[in-house]
Amino acid sequence: MKQPVHVCDECRSKDFTEVQHRLVHEAIDINNKVDVGYKLAEWPQWHYNSDERTLSFLKDGSTKVIASVILVGSTKGDEWQWAWSNKNYPEQERLLVEPVREFGRRKDWPALTTPFLPADEYTGWELTSVAVHVLKAKGSYRFESEDHFIYLVYRDIRYVVQ
Question: Does pTM top 0.85 for this prediction?
Fold first, then answer.
C-alpha cells in the first residue's frame, strides 16, 4: 500500500536548500523535545532490533523506552545512501522511506531521488531532517555500525511499563 506523501504549503514554493535548512532546525527542536520527554540521556544503553524495526533505550539491561523506527539511510566514508536504494535491506523496510523519494520527485529535488550522494559530517542529519518532516516522525537517531553510520526516524516512541 502506497503511503501518502506529506507536502506542506511552505515546501511547495521554495528551493531545496532553503527548505532543508528550515527542516534541520525543525528536527532539532523535535529531537530536543523527545530527548527531554523520554529522558533519553538517562538511559546509557541502546539496542537496535532490525527484525522488529525497533530501537530500545535501556538501563542496567532493562528496557525503559522503545521506539518503532524507519531506516532512512547511511553514510560510509564520504558517501550517503538512501535506505530505499539499499538492496541489503528487505523490500518492506525500503518501502517505508519511499515517501521521501516521492516527495523529491514531486519537487524535482535530486538530493531526495539520487541513491548515492557525496557526504560530509552533516549530510546524514540534513537528509534525515527532511525525512522527519515528510514522514511526520517523532524524532531521529544515528548510530554507528561497523564502518558506517545508520540514520533512522521514530514512527512511535513510548515508555515501557515494568
Answer: yes
